[in-house]
Task: structure prediction
Amino acid sequence: MRIEQLKKEHIPQLCKLEQQCFGAVAWNKSAFESELEKDDALFLCALAEDAVIGCAALNNAAGQGFISKVMVAPAFRRQRVAQALLEQMSRLAKEKGMYELTLEVRASNAAAIALYETCGFEKLGIRRKFYRLPQEDAVIMTRKL
Result:
């Protein structure tokens, strides 16, 4: 497995992975393309051979990194792909002068919460009814860099 920054040629595979992971609320091609154009964005892909097996997206807001997406193909879960993405994301964010990373995760997603805690994130609070389809609270998590 290797991790690299998002490239235009990754987008078709990323859209398929996005649909697998997020269904009705999946990003479309134009959403990924717009990420490529943002100066304050960092978007990493995990690849096995030439196949996109995971990704993580971050936006820099005045030194605070907001992680908007972490996803891994079902066949590659529990193989430390997400952990590798988050570790690389943390290193790059720190190099870019960010002091903190923040994210939201569905309150029912115990596996993701455990992963984030393993990666040094701490629970900060709750955003009520943050998610839709289905509606659910989000746990806000943060990590100092």
The two ends are 25 Å apart (CA to CA). The chain has a mean pLDDT of 94. The first strand starts at residue 2 and ends at 5. The chain has four helices and seven strands.
